[in-house]
C-alpha cells in the first residue's frame, strides 16, 4: 500500500470552490434561461451575478497559484502514453488491467487528463467567462450614463454563453464518472478531499515506485 | 495530537471559514430595504398642495347675474385681458396642431380631422362632439376661432362641480347650470375638470382610454398611487405642468410629435431603483411597462367596436343590450362592443412619434387599418417598450376608392342623412364625405381597424409592479409579440438547446454504459481498502 500527498490545500480549496460555483452557476444560469425554476427569476439573476464575481476572483487566485508554484507544468501536453490511456479506458479497464500511467505529486494528470483540462482551461472557461462578462455588462443606457456594450447583439453573446454552460455540464457528468476509475471507486474523490491518495501496489507499480521516490513517501 | 487529527482540525476550520464567508456574502447581498430618498423627497414635495390666495367670489366683476356663458367669459377677460390669446394657441381650442410626420411632412392634424375607431370623426358631427370643445357654438365648419367671447373658461376652471356641458349643444353649458355660482367658484383645474372630457371620450365613462376614468376620483392607492384619495391625491396638473395655458403631455390618438411630453423620469429620474439591474432597464423599458400591470381597474373599458353590426332595429326602433357588467354591448346606432376590466396591456416599441390614418389615405382592405401607428423599434435608441390598450374594430369604408369614410352620424332630426336617426349608411356616408370634400362611390363595406392608446395612468404600488418572469419567460411572456430583440428567459436558440440536451443525454448514457460494462466485465473494486480514519493508517 502506497499513500501519497497529491493535492495541496489551495488546490483542493480551488477545486471544490470552483466545482460548487460552477454547479450553482449552472442552476441559476439555467433558471435565467427559463429551463428550470428553483430560486425565482429575480434571485436567480442576482445570485448568478454574485457567483460569477466569486468565480472570477477564484480564477485570478488559481492562475496566480499555478504560476507561483510551478504547477502549470502539470499541464504541459504530452502524447506519450496517450494511446495507452485511451486503450485503458476503452479496453483495459474491463479486463482489470492496471492503469497505464502512475499518479504522483509531480505527475497528477494522465496524458488524457492533461489534454482535457487544457481545453477546459483554455477554451471552455475563457468562453463562458468572456461571454459572461459581455452579458453582464450588456446594457443600453441613455444619455445620462455610459453605454458599455451595445453593438454586440445580446443573442450572439447569450448563445455562446449557453453553449459553454451545456459543455460544462457535459464535462461535469463525465468528470464525476471518471473519478470512479481510480484505484477504488472513491479513491480519487477521497484524494481530492484529503489530499492523500492510496495506491494498491501492483507489481509494475512497486518497481516504478522504487525507481522514482515520490514527495510524500 | 497526531497528524491525522491536525488535518481533521484544519479541515474543520476551513469548512468553518468557508461557511463564514458564505454567511457574510448572504448578509452583504441581502440588505434590509433602505428608504428610497428620491421617492421620499418627491412625496414631501407633492404632499404640500398649492392653495390659491385669490378668492374669485369676492371680485366685483363677478357680483352679477350671468345670462349667457359669453358674459362670463367677458367678465373673465376684463381682468385676464390677454389670456384668450394663450387659449387660442392651444389644441384644446383649435382641435388641431401643426406637427411634422415622418414621410408626410408638415401637417395640421387633430381632433378636428383625424379619424378614430370609436365614433369615427368629428367633421359633420360637431354639434354633438363639441361637448368636449372649450368653446361655445362649434356646430359646423363655420365656427369663428378668433372670437374670444366663445372661449369656455368655466369647463376647466369651475370649482363648484356644477358646470356641465349640454348634450349635443355645440359646447354650450347645460340649461340647468347656474352661471353666477360657477363664475364665482373658479380656480385651478382639478381632476374633475379634466375628467369632464378626458374620462368620457367616445360617449361614456372609460370608453376610450382605459386608464382615465371617473373611478380615479377618490380611488385607492391600488388603482393609482399618484391620484389616490388615500395617497398623494395629486391633481392632473401636478404632472401635466402648464405654462401660459400650454399644457404638457399629449395623446397619440391625435398627436404625432415627440415634444412637450410628460415623462415619469422628469420627477423620478431614469435611475429610480436601488437595484442597479432594474435601472439598466429604463433605457429600453418605460416605467409604465412594469408599473401598470393592469388598467381599467375600477370600471370596464371598450376593447372592441364593430360598426358593421349597427343598424338592427326592433319593431323599426333602435335598441340596446347590456353585458354582465351593465355596459352596453349592443346599440343599434353604434354596433356591438366588447368591454373588459382589469386588462393586461399589450406592449409596443415607441419613440414618441406617431403616424395617423389621414383622410383620403388609401389602403388594402385585406389588411387591418392602423388608425394611429406608434413608431419605434428595438434598434431605435429613442424607443422604449410601452404598455398600450389596443382598440380593435371595424368601420365603414369606400370599397371602390379604398379609403375610410367619415359618416354623418349626428343630426337633431330624422331625414337629415344622420346615421343615428336614419340608419342609412349610404346617405350618412354621402353627407359626411361631401362635407370633407372627398368622393364617395356608393359602394361601402367595413374595414378592420386598430387603434393604440398608450397607458400612462393607474400606476400601481411598487409591490404590485411586474415580476421579472412576467416578461422573462419562455411560456407566457408579456412581451411575446415583441420579437425584434433577444430577451433572456423568453428567447433561446432551439438548435443550440437541442445540441445541449443531446450532449448531456449522451454523456449520461455514455457513463452509464461504461459503468455497467465495468460492473459486468470485472468486479468493480469498491472500497475494500481500509478507511483513512481507522487504525492502520495512523502509523
Class of chain A, according to the CATH hierarchy? Mainly Alpha
Structural class of chain A: mainly alpha
Query: Radius of gyration of chain B in whole Å, from Cα?
Result: 32 Å
CATH third-level topology of chain A: Fumarate Reductase Cytochrome B subunit
Overall description:
The complex is a heterodimer of chains A (217) and B (539). Chain A is mainly alpha-helical and 217 residues long. In chain A, 60% of the residues lie in helices and 4% in strands. Chain A has 7 helices and 2 strands, in the order E-H-H-H-H-H-H-E-H. In chain A, strands 1-2 form a two-stranded antiparallel sheet. In chain A, helix 1 runs antiparallel to helix 2 and helix 4 runs antiparallel to helix 5. Chain A starts with a strand and ends in a 6-residue tail after the last helix. Chain B is an alpha+beta fold and 539 residues long. Chain B folds into 3 domains: 96 residues, no CATH class; 290 residues, no CATH class; 36 residues. Chain B has 16 helices and 15 strands. In chain B, a hairpin with a 2-residue loop joins strand 3 and strand 4. Chain B is globular. Chain B starts with a helix and ends in an 18-residue tail after the last helix. The C terminus of chain B is likely disordered. Chains A and B meet through helix 1, helix 2, helix 5 and helix 6 of A and helix 1 and helix 16 of B.
Helix/strand layout:
The complex is a heterodimer of chains A (217) and B (539).
Chain A: E1 2-5, H1 9-32, H2 41-69, H3 82-90, H4 111-137, H5 154-178, H6 187-194, E2 196-199, H7 203-211
Antiparallel strand pairs in A: 1-2
Chain B: H1 3-29, H2 37-47, H3 69-79, H4 83-88, H5 91-94, E1 97-101, E2 105-109, H6 126-129, H7 154-157, H8 179-185, H9 191-198, H10 236-239, E3 242-243, E4 246-247, H11 265-268, H12 276-281, H13 287-291, E5 301-306, E6 320-322, E7 328-331, E8 335-340, E9 346-350, E10 354-356, E11 369-370, E12 372-374, E13 384-398, E14 403-404, H14 419-422, H15 425-436, E15 444-454, H16 494-521
Parallel strand pairs in B: 5-13, 11-15
Antiparallel strand pairs in B: 1-2, 3-4, 5-8, 6-7, 7-8, 9-13, 10-12, 13-14, 13-15
Amino acid at each position: 500500500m502506497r499513500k501519497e500527498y497529491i493535492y495541496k490545500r489551495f488546490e483542493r480549496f480551488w477545486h471544490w470552490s470552483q466545482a460548487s460555483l460552477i454547479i450553482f452557476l449552472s442552476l441559476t444560469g439555467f433558471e435565467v434561461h427559463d429551463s428550470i425554476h428553483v430560486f425565482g427569476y429575480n434571485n436567480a439573476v442576482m445570485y448568478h451575478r454574485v457567483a460569477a464575481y466569486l468565480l472570477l476572483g477564484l480564477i485570478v487566485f488559481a492562475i496566480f497559484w499555478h504560476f507561483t508554484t510551478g504547477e502549470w507544468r502539470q499541464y504541459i501536453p504530452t502524447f506519450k502514453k496517450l494511446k495507452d490511456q485511451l486503450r485503458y479506458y476503452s479496453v483495459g479497464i474491463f479486463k482489470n488491467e492496471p492503469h497505464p500511467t502512475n499518479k504522483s505529486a509531480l505527475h497528477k494528470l494522465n496524458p488524457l487528463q492533461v489534454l482535457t483540462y487544457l481545453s477546459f482551461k483554455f477554451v471552455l472557461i475563457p468562453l463562458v467567462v468572456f461571454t459572461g462578462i459581455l452579458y453582464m455588462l450588456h446594457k443600453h443606457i441613455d444619455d445620462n450614463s455610459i453605454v458599455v456594450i451595445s453593438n454586440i447583439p445580446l443573442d450572439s453573446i447569450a448563445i455562446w454563453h449557453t453553449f459553454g454552460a451545456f459543455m460544462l455540464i457535459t464535462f461535469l457528468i463525465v468528470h464525476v464518472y471518471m473519478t470512479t476509475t481510480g484505484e477504488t471507486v472513491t479513491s480519487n474523490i477521497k484524494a481530492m478531499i484529503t489530499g492523500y491518495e492510496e495506491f494498491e501496489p501492483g507489481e509494475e507499480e512497486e518497481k516504478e515506485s522504487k525507481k522514482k521516490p515520490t514527495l510524500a513517501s | 495530537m497526531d497528524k491525522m487529527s491536525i488535518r481533521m482540525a484544519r479541515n474543520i476550520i476551513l469548512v468553518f471559514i468557508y461557511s463564514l464567508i458564505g454567511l457574510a456574502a448572504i448578509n452583504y447581498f441581502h440588505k434590509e430595504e433602505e428608504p428610497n430618498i428620491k421617492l421620499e423627497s418627491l412625496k414631501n414635495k407633492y404632499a404640500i398642495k398649492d392653495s390659491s390666495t385669490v378668492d374669485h367670489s369676492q371680485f366685483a366683476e363677478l357680483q352679477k347675474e350671468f345670462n349667457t356663458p359669453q358674459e362670463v367669459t367677458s367678465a373673465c377677460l376684463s381682468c385676464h385681458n390677454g389670456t384668450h390669446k394663450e387659449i387660442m394657441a392651444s389644441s384644446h381650442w383649435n382641435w388641431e396642431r401643426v406637427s411634422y410626420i415622418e414621410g408626410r411632412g408638415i401637417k395640421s392634424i387633430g381632433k378636428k380631422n383625424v379619424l378614430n375607431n370609436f365614433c369615427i370623426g368629428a367633421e359633420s358631427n360637431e354639434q354633438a362632439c363639441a361637448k368636449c370643445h372649450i368653446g361655445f357654438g362649434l356646430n359646423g365648419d363655420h365656427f369663428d376661432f378668433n372670437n374670444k367671447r366663445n372661449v369656455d373658461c368655466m369647463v376647466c376652471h369651475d370649482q363648484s362641480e356644477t358646470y356641465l356641458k349640454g348634450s349635443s349643444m355645440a359646447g354650450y353649458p347645460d340649461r340647468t347650470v347656474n352661471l353666477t355660482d360657477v363664475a364665482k367658484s373658479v380656480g385651478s383645474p382639478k381632476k374633475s375638470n379634466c375628467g369632464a372630457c378626458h374620462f368620457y371620450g367616445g360617449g361614456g365613462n372609460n370608453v376610450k382610454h382605459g386608464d382615465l376614468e371617473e373611478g380615479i376620483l377618490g380611488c385607492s392607492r391600488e388603482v393609482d398611487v399618484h391620484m389616490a384619495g388615500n395617497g398623494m391625491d395629486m391633481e392632473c396638473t401636478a404632472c401635466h405642468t402648464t405654462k401660459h395655458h400650454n399644457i404638457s403631455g399629449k395623446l397619440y390618438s391625435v398627436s404625432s410629435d415627440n415634444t412637450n411630453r410628460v415623462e415619469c423620469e422628469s420627477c423620478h429620474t431614469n435611475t429610480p431603483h436601488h437595484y442597479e439591474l432594474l435601472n439598466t432597464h429604463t433605457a429600453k423599458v418605460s416605467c409604465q411597462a412594469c408599473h401598470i400591470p393592469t388598467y381599467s381597474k375600477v370600471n370596464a373599458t371598450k376593447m372592441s367596436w364593430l360598426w358593421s353590426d349597427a343598424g338592427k332595429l326592433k319593431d323599426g326602433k333602435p335598441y340596446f343590450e347590456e353585458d354582465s357588467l351593465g355596459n352596453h354591448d349592443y346599440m343599434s346606432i353604434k354596433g356591438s362592443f366588447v368591454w373588459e376590466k382589469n386588462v393586461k396591456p399589450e406592449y409596443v416599441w415607441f419613440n414618441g412619434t406617431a403616424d395617423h390614418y389621414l383622410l383620403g389615405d388609401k389602403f388594402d382592405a385585406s389588411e387591418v387599418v392602423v388608425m394611429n401607428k406608434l413608431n419605434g423599434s428595438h434598434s431605435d435608441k429613442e424607443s422604449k417598450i410601452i404598455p398600450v390598450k389596443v382598440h380593435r374594430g371595424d368601420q365603414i369604408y369606400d370599397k371602390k376608392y379604398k379609403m375610410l369614410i367619415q359618416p354623418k352620424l349626428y343630426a337633431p332630426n330624422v331625414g337629415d342623412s344622420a346615421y343615428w336617426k336614419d340608419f342609412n349608411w349610404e346617405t350618412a356616408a354621402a353627407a359626411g364625405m361631401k362635407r370633407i370634400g372627398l368622393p364617395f362611390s356608393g359602394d361601402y363595406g367595413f374595414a378592420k381597424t386598430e387603434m393604440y392608446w398608450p397607458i400612462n395612468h393607474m400606476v400601481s404600488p411598487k409591490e404590485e409592479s411586474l415580476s421579472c418572469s412576467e416578461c422573462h419567460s419562455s411560456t407566457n411572456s408579456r412581451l411575446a409579440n415583441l420579437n425584434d430583440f433577444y430577451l433572456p428567459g423568453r428567447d433561446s436558440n432551439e438548435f443550440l438547446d437541442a445540441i445541449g440536451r443531446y450532449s448531456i443525454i449522451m454523456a449520461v448514457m455514455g457513463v452509464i454504459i461504461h459503468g455497467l460494462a465495468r460492473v459486468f466485465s470485472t468486479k468493480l473494486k469498491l472500497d475494500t481498502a481500509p478507511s483513512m480514519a481507522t487504525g492502520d493508517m495512523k502509523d
